[in-house]
Amino acid sequence: MNDGVLNNLVIAVSLTLVLFGAAAVVLTRGPSKQAVVLSCYGLLLTIMFVVLQAPDVALSQVAIGTAVVPLIVVLSIRKISVIRAEHRAMDEEEKK
Question: Region 61-68: what's the mean pLDDT?
């Protein structure tokens, strides 16, 4: 098989995986589950950038898109749930 054809096939497969990964992120219900799927999507993007020979972008993606952004989302979800629990407790006290 020709190297150019093989290279194009690998690029097509990585783009297809990124397409399905994006659909999985959008169709996932629940913010915490979506953060996990977003992290997996970040890995797919990293693989695509490596295939496209952009190692600097791949390193940025693995650091930010795979680790930091999902972590911030999970921490935000946790903080919001704590704030909501505090408000519920305050509302129950006011009713008494």
Answer: 91
Q: Is the pLDDT of residue 96 over 80?
A: no
The pLDDT value recorded for residue 1 is 62
Q: What is the mean pLDDT of residues 24-35?
A: 92
Q: For residues 73 and 31, is the Cβ–Cβ distance under 8 A?
A: yes
pTM comes to 0.80
Give the number of domains in the chain.
Answer: 1
CA angle in degrees (0–180, nearest 5) for 11-15-16 = 115
Residues 6+ apart with CB under 8 A from 46: 58, 61, 62, 65, 66
Domain that holds residue 35: 3-95
How many CB atoms are closer than 10 A to CB 19? 11
